[in-house]
């Protein structure tokens, strides 16, 4: 019997659950886009956006998804014949590199696999080997949504400094911004990109490129940048429409305004801590299920390397898919598919799944999702260790 | 640290969580109320409403809350000088009796306390003692929202038949309709009243009186009934406005249409079973917490007497209030206050609380709410037995 | 060819067009009804409601439509065997009288027809003839929605004073409150009733009884008043639920809060003046159409007796219906049907129609509606005088 | 006194007024983007989109505004060193040319001024002069939103054929698609671009490139196209995310689905005819105001060259701005600013304004807007000829 007839809960790693205030704010008539409230609103949003990334730099807003932000950020600092170095820790690292290749940029990749994150030593070695400083930038995923690996930018910056390499440090924060602590300026990141639909809790369709002063300098040296991607007028517009390279994305802006207000009313530090605690509750449950020869495996063994916004898991055989289907059909929860986890034995990655725990998220949502996972594993006959739900509740109780 | 910044979850015994489809349906411009779509829509809703109550009788729709439906139902069948007999199993039984008194009707009460439900033998005795058949009706709560007692109408009907008493059997189904199995015709109920904001999943503001043929006869014998409460034109209108004794409650009707579609698409039997299973999951957890000298007490010990839509609980001292506050502030869950549970030691009923589990409800919502209860009891230092969350998940898994 | 595929415009005399802010405010989850924001919100609304009626008296809020408010107001001041005097100037005057009869109250009527309003001299005579002061109240419609007659309360109060009659003066302000100037205290009105769906711009389902000090005294002398209609706990509640005699109408309250904010932000005097000017624009057009032997007839010839919120019109033969259909099908405008205007020659009142111009209304809406009327009269071949639209625009220009 | 306190009406040339059904559709939780309903929905939308453009070709959907679609369309068919020929009839023609230059494409322009549209003879001459067929495409605006000129594609295609030139014919249909008749295949257009926020009645944020078979061939010969703009996977995706080059723009898609349903339920021919008739009503009024030495001037004198979706007007001195302000402040109507109309005497174009009449538009909206223009001209003291509103109503009546 299905027990799904209540509020659906989308626990995929983006788009995330949207606050009612965001959807409400988007439910309004079209505004004038030449003058009036929307102009004031956008001018007020820019500093609020920068507070999310902790930067005194600039921000360019794009009507685009995260792939668009990838392309935008690259277009402004490199072109055909240029080279970048990409630290890959999952499918999305490959994706950004591919985007560079599409622009005629050579993207050299260091592949760190899917389980252990970036080894800064190897990065330092690669940069030292680039004696002619051909790499214009080092690209990495702050969180790779596929593997749920969290890469700390600080050792990367240290490696670059140690190598004395002038490349820009570019962070893909699509799955992390607004969830994980991120200090763009303090941590020495030159460019950070993100999208609207995860920690920012707005529908997909907007993306953002944060631009530090060194990146601005590199842009200025570029011979030509396409009008749509050129961040120059966007980060310092003379006219309102230049914020968006044309017509403003009115309704996403309404939603984003609501979202930024929620985030800053809560406080970014508190938002980050909330994600830490809720992630620890999830890990406590997952580690309990893994115990006693349970079938579940957390993709990332080291807690220090785990994202606080997404968790990739393996359940063996086709049980990832089976569990996803059971909780969707019987409990009203939608989990994320495994991405980039295909193996010979499991060519469609059906043994894997992901939990999104980003954005508008609180204790009962996490505990309810975990409860349905336990019920689901039991229902489909997957062996799992005991005490998981109590362990998660204990983390919540202690918060 | 608060972990409440996500979707709020209102787990009080009404108003219940509303489906998005209901709120969506209510978000539309005012319609013409003289002709067109709304007329067709209402005519189509009447049979759907009657299917919820399982009756071939009539239904009167009132713009009113449940108290209004109480008054409406009484006004049509009794007046000053008449008598009714009220079987009281909690605060709401007293409330209906009080409503009768306000109409000049003498309301004799049999008080069955707050824990064991109606004893049909005592009802039968009382009716046998009424040899002149002064009681025009026997009133009872199918579920009393305060105590969470479920009263089966069938033994009451049997007692009335055994006593050979012609009184009408009137059921307060405000907290039960659309959640608990209810078979108005098959079970011999003459009048059933309910409201929009619980099992029907629509905001408060509409209520319903279902009218069986014997009740219609009694109405016809009444010398005068106030125009607003008179169900005669409402159950068989010549003009559209008569459905509502004046202007139609347009937006509640839009919401109700959406809600009835959801209910009947799922199927009433399935809706009832879903509530049974989810209640059993809640009971499994509560019984586990009660074990091992846990502080928690289910108000109703006998599972057969428990509502499947609301559960009243005691936690001792002021811990009911403390728990409510903890889960609201830290986990985003709002529980119901204890009602009518005041004692000398606890004059404000702060040791009690209630879980609403009615309407638009699925497995992850229930499991998440239970998880926060466990976290909350731990956080406020209330002793509770082990294994509650696993026990609840087991019920879900077996469904 | 239909030109209706744009925003529909409902120009009937209630429900009126709702502001987006009202619908937005109603699109939110169910709130806790025992404590928290809704309690604060309602306490803050009571003074704002009283400012609309310009009274320092009390207000009772009912979950009911206008017919419910009629019944509520009467129930508190009269009962079986009592008498009231009703000044009838249209269908709704008859309706209120009928509501009184349903309560066992004798309702004597003075019928002033449908075109000239109340003659205060006749009222004074009737009251003088009531030497034993049997009439407990004088009832009248501030605006009768059917005839669009506006009855000034001041001469009625003067007549009552001149007659030295102690009856209460009770005003039906359902079609006028929030549109027409109304000064309950200054004008000597003891009880005023209204609904949510016209000048208050909220869906039907709430109604209001404003209670002056003399009315409170009369209530206190009543032997018994039904619990649902009793205004005593509603106007001075000890507990929050008593405001509403049970469960609060949460979503209507959200909408009403938004509406009251809009009204008071604009300012009641400005709201009234806006209705005056827009009505004058409508009259200017209608008078122009009537000129040159045009078929159109304003039901009320004297501008001083015309409502500023609704205008009843005759077009002869079945042309009222034909025009309504044309503008609905071809231009997206819904006009009100003629009510209570049936004649021998026109037994279904198809020669008549009404324009609602109440509430959330501005210049372009009125001018657009008038433009479609001109187009419609031309299309269905009804002769009409020239210059109507220019005359209306001139009124707007001069505002 | 302001008469603006009712429904605001945004009569600018985009974004256009959105149907309630579109905003409703967008008010829903985030969906799964990997499987389920959204996949089916998008697959069903593609043919409906192509029916709007009347093409059997392909369509690429971009998360971008119109400027993004300009860049996308160019990127797929030309690159650095290539040349295109742009027929300019207003500011937006210059804009598209500028976008080409940003991509390293040489954009030769023929400027046809702002009042008379494209002279196909001059185009033919220019193409004949390009004997080495360097121009890869001829770009033009179907409607230039700034000047409100309508350029018929058929003579352009004929000129290209007469010149025997193989260039692609590329139409900017941003301001026209869904409003003006457009037959991409029958009229020989190879690429058409549009946005979501005008005739498609969805918020800004989506744009569309329709791709004919000759354009597909040109794309295939391109050495490299950036991943985001490459239409290849978008027009023929293997995986769902490829439709959008990454994460799907879920909420815009919900809105677009609703909008396409409205358009096709009405029928594209009927939609086009409705725009023709409503435009003719506007012209009738404007021509009347211009008569008798009225100050108003339609920018385009020849009816055959006027857009049916936007009308550019001059009022002299600063009266364009003054009128815009008056109708916004006093009547609730927002008009469009003049764009690209600056002169020495009027360096900020304050003598000009534009009426948007595109998309979700019906007779009462147009007539109401015209009525406020008349009131406004009178209020600010601009001389205008008589009979304008009656003339517009006559067009509506005759439809």
From TrEMBL, chains A, B, C, D:
Substrate binds at residue 354. The modification N6-(pyridoxal phosphate)lysine is found at residue 198. GO terms for molecular function: alanine-glyoxylate transaminase activity; L-serine-pyruvate transaminase activity. Keywords: Pyridoxal phosphate. Signal peptide: none annotated. The keyword Lyase does not apply. Residues 76-328 form the Aminotransferase class V domain. Its cofactor is pyridoxal 5'-phosphate. This is Septum site-determining protein. It comes from Primorskyibacter flagellatus.
């Amino acid at each position: 019997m299905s027990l799904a007839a209540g509020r659906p809960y989308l626990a995929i790693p983006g788009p995330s659950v949207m606050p009612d205030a965001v959807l409400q704010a988007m439910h309004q008539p079209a505004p004038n886009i030449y003058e009036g409230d929307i102009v004031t609103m956008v001018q007020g949003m820019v500093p609020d956006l920068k507070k999310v990334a902790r930067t005194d730099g600039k921000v360019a807003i794009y009507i685009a998804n995260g792939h668009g932000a990838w392309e935008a950020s690259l277009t402004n600092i490199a072109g055909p014949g240029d080279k970048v170095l990409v630290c890959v820790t999952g499918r999305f690292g490959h994706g950004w590199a591919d985007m560079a290749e599409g622009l005629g940029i050579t993207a050299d990749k260091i592949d760190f696999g899917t389980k252990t994150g970036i080894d800064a030593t190897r990065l330092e070695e690669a940069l030292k080997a680039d004696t002619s400083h051909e790499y214009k930038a080092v690209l990495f995923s702050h969180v790779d949504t596929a593997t749920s690996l969290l890469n700390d930018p600080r050792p990367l910056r240290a490696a670059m400094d140690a190598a004395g390499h002038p490349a820009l440090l570019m962070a893909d924060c699509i799955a992390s911004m607004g969830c994980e602590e991120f200090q763009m300026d303090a941590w020495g990141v030159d460019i950070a990109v993100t999208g609207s639909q995860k920690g920012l809790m707005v529908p997909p369709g907007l993306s953002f490129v944060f631009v530090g002063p060194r990146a601005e300098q590199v842009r200025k040296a570029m011979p030509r940048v396409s009008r749509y991607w050129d961040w120059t007028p966007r980060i310092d517009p003379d006219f309102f429409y230049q914020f968006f390279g044309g017509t403003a994305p009115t309704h996403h802006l309404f939603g984003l305004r609501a979202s930024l207000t929620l985030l800053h009313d809560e406080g970014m530090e508190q938002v980050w801590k909330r994600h830490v605690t809720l992630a620890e509750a999830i890990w406590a449950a997952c580690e309990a299920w893994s115990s006693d020869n349970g079938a579940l495996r957390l993709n990332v063994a080291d807690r220090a390397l785990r994202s606080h916004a997404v968790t990739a898991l393996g359940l063996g055989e086709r049980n990832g898919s089976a569990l996803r289907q059971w909780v969707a059909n019987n409990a009203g929860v939608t989990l994320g598919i495994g991405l980039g986890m295909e193996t010979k034995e499991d060519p469609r990655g059906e043994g894997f799944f992901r939990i999104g725990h980003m954005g508008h998220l609180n204790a009962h949502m996490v505990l309810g999702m975990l409860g349905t996972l336990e019920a689901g594993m039991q229902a489909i006959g997957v062996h799992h260790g005991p005490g998981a739900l109590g362990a998660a509740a204990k983390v919540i109780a202690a918060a």
